[in-house]
Target: NIPA like domain containing 2
Amino acid sequence: MSVLNDTDNVANSSAPQPALNTSSPGAHRAEILENPLRKYAHVRQSQRDSKPYYTSAVWWCGVALMGIGELGNFAAYGFAPASLIAPLGSVSVIASAVISVIFLKETVRVSDVVGGSLAITGTYVLVTFAPHTITHITAHLIQYYIVSWYFVLYLSLEVLLFCILLYVYKKRNVKHIVVVMLLVALLASLTVISVKAVSGMITETIKGQLQFIYPIFYVMLVIMIASCAFQIKFLNQAMKMFDATEVVPINFVFFTASAIVAGIVFYQEFEGLALLNIFMFLFGCLLSFLGVFLIARNRPKIKQQDPDFIALDKIPSRSHTDKVQPEANTQTYGSLAAKLMCNSASRTRHNS
Model:
C-alpha cells in the first residue's frame, strides 16, 4: 500500500488548520499535492469563518475519495507486480495538481507542464516495459519466499541500516531530511511486501482457496499495520521539520525505489525479464521522478507571522528586535509589554 498520500494526510490531520493566504496563489500548492479536496474544504471553511472543517460535506467527500483510492491501491497489489504499482504514484501527483488548479484556482507554471509531461511519459514507458507476470500469492508461496537466503540477507542488511539510521537520528540528533526519509523508505519496503502478501492471499480466498487458516496471513497483517504506523510517525516528524516541497518528491523517490527493490528481492519480479526491458523500466521511473520533482519544486513557502507575538520595536519608547508573547486573556501587548508602557508613561508624567 502506497503511503505517498500520508505525506499530506499527516500534515492535515496532525495540527489545526490555519486560514489560508488567499492573496498568494500557489502558496499552499505543495501541501495539497496529495489531497486537494480536503484542502479545498479547509479554504471554504476559513473564508466563511463558520463551522469546523469536519462538518463540511466537501471535506468528507475528499476523505471518502481518498479512502476509496487507497482501497483500490491495496487491491491492485493482489493483481500486479509491486514494482509496477509503486511508480504509478506519480499519476496521483499529476491528478492532484490538476484538481488543485480547478478547485483552488492555482496558477499553472511552466515547470508544472514540463513535469506533468515527463511524469506521463515515464509512466507510459515503465508500464510498457514492466514485468507483467501474474503470480498467485498463497500462504505456502509467502513462506517459501521468507526463508530464501537472498531475502534473509536483504532483511538483515535492512535491519542493520535501520538501526544505524535510528541511532543517528535519535541519539546523535542528526535531523537531516535524507535520514528521516531513508527510515520511511526502509519501513516502506516491509509495507510493500506485507501489503502484497495480504492482498494476494485475500484475492486467493475470494477465488475459493482459503488462506485465513494459515498463521503467515496474520503475521503479514501485523507487519503491514505496524510498518504503516511507523511510516506515518516519521512522515509526520518530517512534515514538521521540513517543507512539503522537499518531503513530497523525496518521499516519492525513496518509497518507489524501496518498493521496486522489495518486489525484485522478495517476489523475484524481474526474473526472466530481458535486459532491455529492465533498462527501459528504470528509465521510465527516472522520468517519473524528475516529473514529480518539477511539479513540487520552488513552491512558495509560507512565512506566517504569529499574531500572538509582537516586536518590542513597536512599543513606544523602546527599540528592540526580540519578541514578547502576551498573555492569552489580554487585549493588547501582554504583561511585560504593558509594564514597559507603564514605565514609559510614568517617566513622561514625571518629566512634565
Q: What stands out?
A: The chain has 13 helices and two strands. Confidence is low (pLDDT under 50) at residues 11-34, 301-314, 318-324, 327-336.
